[in-house]
Design goal:
The two termini are 31 Å apart. The protein contains ten helices and twelve strands. Strands 6-7-8-3-9-10-12-11 form an eight-stranded mixed β-sheet, with helices on both faces. It has a domain of 158 residues: Rossmann fold (3-Layer(aba) Sandwich), CATH 3.40.50.300. Helix 4 crosses helix 5 and helix 5 runs parallel beside helix 6. The structure holds adenosine-5'-triphosphate. Adenosine-5'-triphosphate binds next to strand 1, strand 2 and helix 1.
Length: 323
């Protein structure tokens, strides 16, 4: 099946007074129709920068300095402003990290939905907009009559579900969710993700799910890209990441979060702190923190090793029994 989104060798730099800081470095992955692709990594590794760049929502000092982004056969980096305006929401929409705060607390929900329909030339009739809004709210489990309320009258979980309904308003083919439930408690978090999964089955969209919580991600995603210091260092199916990750960073990240099911285990964590992107070392970026690092790791950049659709970048990958 052809990929819906094809990201190839994308680089995004922040242009600072001290020079360029590369926050996304030669990142490549693809998302097929109906697939849920996860992007996991510690804070500051470049996940949000990448998500914004995919929709060309990045703002200076961020600059896309290389690579290609092809969505449904169209080159995103070549789109003019009008094409981009339609592309966002209609083809690809995003639920932001602090999505709950994206709603204007003093404007009724129905008016906020109406603005989207009007802006995208779907309808300028308030009655039709209300019908559409009612359907969308029902989809995410909110009683339609609540559209007449103000967002400040909603709980955090309800606001988040309302934002997801908005993101789905124009039936996009890809939903980008950047830490969509981080501010919510675990029970609400899980019920929202379950809802999103049901909606995906019903409506058939694909998802790019971004989080630092790998346990949650392994439950929710088909395929996972593990990001470290601006690079994807391993890409594999959720079950491979769970049972036999090959990159020591994937292994460490997996063991830093309690499993959602089964026995509680001792959490190991990863020693040290994330790399300062202004100071990229010569060899492997993870070597300083890696329990498996050898001399070569400090000297040579590890090559990308392919295994079918999967890949990893490590001189001394872990074997299956390690996971
Ligand atoms: N305006 C800026 N100027 C220079 N560097 C920046 C700027 N904004 C972000 N960065 C750097 O880009 C890197 C990537 O940031 P980004 O927010 O994409 O990471 P993230 O993985 O999404 O983190 P989080 O989960 O905390 O949002 C960080 O290391 C950050 O220091």
């Amino acid at each position: 099946m052809a990929a819906l989104l094809e990201v190839k060798d994308v680089c995004v730099d922040y242009v600072t007074l001290d020079g360029h800081v590369r926050a996304v470095d030669n990142v490549s992955f693809s998302i097929k129709e109906g697939q849920i692709f996860g992007l996991a990594g510690e804070s500051g590794c470049g996940k949000s920068t990448l998500a914004y760049a995919l929709m060309r929502l990045h703002r200076p000092p961020a600059l896309i300095t290389g690579g290609s982004i092809i969505f449904d056969g169209k080159d995103v980096l070549e789109m003019d402003d009008e094409t981009l305006r339609k592309f966002r929401w209609e083809k690809i929409s995003m639920v932001f990290q602090s999505a709950m705060n994206c709603l204007n607390p003093v404007i009724k929900l129905e008016k906020q939905f109406f603005e989207i329909f009007k802006y995208h030339d779907v309808t300028d009739s308030m009655d039709e907009s209300r019908d559409r809004t009612a359907e969308l709210l029902k989809l995410v489990g909110i009683a339609p009559e609540r559209m007449r309320d103000y967002p400040h009258q909603f709980s955090g979980g309800m606001r988040q579900r309302a934002v997801i309904a908005m993101a789905l308003a124009l039936r996009p083919k890809l939903l980008v969710m950047d830490e969509p439930t981080t501010a919510l408690d675990t029970v609400v978090q899980r019920s929202i993700l379950q809802k999103v999964q049901e909606l995906k089955e019903e409506l058939g969209f694909s998802i790019l799910f971004i989080t630092h919580d790998l346990s949650l991600m392994m439950e929710f995603c088909d395929t996972i890209g593990i990001m470290y210091a601006a690079e994807i260092v391993e890409k594999a199916s959720s079950s491979v990441i769970l049972k036999s990750p090959r990159h020591p960073y994937s292994y460490g990240l997996k063991n830093s979060f309690p499993p959602l099911h089964g026995e509680m285990k001792y959490m190991e964590g990863i020693p040290g702190s994330p790399l300062d992107l202004r100071r990229i070392p010569n060899g492997c970026r993870f070597a300083e923190r890696c329990f498996n690092a050898k001399d070569k790791c400090y000297r040579e950049v590890p090559p990308r090793m392919h295994d079918g659709d999967d890949f990893f970048e490590c001189h001394f990958p872990l074997n299956a029994s390690r996971g």
